């Protein structure tokens, strides 16, 4: 378990637990040795997968929803049934992002964002800075794909996503005299597929029908000691 930040608030300590040397939080024990729920004074026991322990009076859980769905963390006793229902029902599908740098701006100056529902990347942003007096130029296009469309492309490598993205930009911005503006002016790229990360396994929690109330259930603390937070809410 990784870092401990001491805050200058009397004896209040905040531990931030992150996977470190593959030590991940594997259990939150919220009961005494006889299996009874802790009273207000009792401390919550946190275990990693090597059996190392720390205790805390309050716990804020910010791991991605996928980690809770997959049962990486055992709760003793089990979380309330309605919270488990929320965890199991709310979806967290895939998402990836690609950031490409170009030698020149090949899109209209005032164009900054494109929503392209059936395109290779459904959301595209462009950012450009050019200087008339020196070489301080930077032209960047970002592609974001989420949910089912990202699932469909989940087996593509970074290079394949790059090729698909460049040819999609060429298709949009190519002209008879300049048919491959993106491919021809491409400099460099970064690709990140969050769903493939060992400790994240997903992109965003998707707003699907009938989950609104479940989000409230999911966010609700357990006995004012165990709190749930993070972008999954
Ligand atoms: C493709 C993509 C691109 C994005 N780009 C941007 C961007 O450009 N700018 C921006 O502001 N936001 C961006 N976001 C949103 C941003 O990434 C999220 O809002 C933010 O990371 C959410 O923070 P979080 O702490 O809730 O979850 P996370 O950042 O997912 O953090 C959860 C943490 O829990 C840890 N964890 C998992 N299992 C355990 C365990 N068992 N024990 C202990 N720890 C564990 C994980 O390692 C991770 O560190 C992007 C999101 C996606 C999907």
Automatic annotation (TrEMBL):
<dbReference type="Pfam" id="PF01593">
    <property type="entry name" value="Amino_oxidase"/>
</dbReference>
<dbReference type="InterPro" id="IPR036188">
    <property type="entry name" value="FAD/NAD-bd_sf"/>
</dbReference>
<dbReference type="InterPro" id="IPR002937">
    <property type="entry name" value="Amino_oxidase"/>
</dbReference>
<protein>
    <recommendedName>
        <fullName>Amine oxidase domain-containing protein</fullName>
    </recommendedName>
</protein>
<dbReference type="InterPro" id="IPR050281">
    <property type="entry name" value="Flavin_monoamine_oxidase"/>
</dbReference>
<feature type="domain" description="Amine oxidase">
    <location>
        <begin position="42"/>
        <end position="231"/>
    </location>
</feature>
